[in-house]
Write a structure and sequence with these properties.
Largest sheet: 6 strands, antiparallel
Number of domains: 2
Shape: globular
Strand content: 25-35%
Low-confidence stretches: 30-55
Helix content: 10-25%
CATH superfamily of the largest domain: Rieske [2Fe-2S] iron-sulphur domain
Distance between the termini: 101 Å
CATH architecture of the largest domain: 3-layer Sandwich
Mean pLDDT: 76
């Protein structure tokens, strides 16, 4: 004979404590994020694709008297237009190459003191012809022809 009162709880579904559920869903989210990073994170690196596709149909004229192009009137100055970086070297020559680093697609700058194009993100360096000086970039930049017209004060940039 039972003298005390027994309490019987109804069966419930057990999904885990709120803390267990939180950590399980957070872990799944982190694993998913990591896998996405591994799958897509390297797609912009040159090591994943060794084919360099030059920009087609580059043909434009820069007027050196325009305010937007005034940096080109001094040695070491540069401008960026139409996905091309145009610079005046220390010796006074004009050069033009594709504007994005071939390793990580970062916009380049022209380092006048070294006569080099420089990637501020990965530190790759390219000479004035687009050739890689130091990496991690391994592919050259696309170089463009420049036809200066001193009388008209213009530069024609083309493939």
């Amino acid at each position: 004979m039972k003298t005390g009162m027994e309490t019987t709880l109804p069966p419930t579904e057990h999904h885990g404590s709120p803390r267990h559920t939180f950590f399980r869903s957070t872990g799944i989210g982190l694993v998913t994020l990591l896998l996405m990073h591994l799958a897509f994170g390297c797609s912009g690196q040159s090591g994943s694709d060794t084919t360099l596709v030059p920009v087609q149909g580059i043909n434009f004229t820069l007027n050196l008297t325009d305010k937007a192009n005034e940096n080109l009137t001094v040695k070491g100055g540069y401008v960026i237009t139409n996905n091309v970086i145009i610079a005046q070297t220390k010796s006074g020559n004009f050069v033009a190459v594709s504007v994005n680093c071939t390793y990580d697609k970062t916009r380049l700058v022209f380092k006048a003191t070294e006569n080099q194009f420089y990637c501020p993100a990965d530190l790759s360096r390219f000479d004035t012809t687009g050739k890689v000086i130091s990496g991690p970039a391994t592919l050259p930049l696309t170089a463009y022809k420049i036809e200066p017209n001193a009388a008209a004060g213009t530069l024609v940039v083309h493939n």
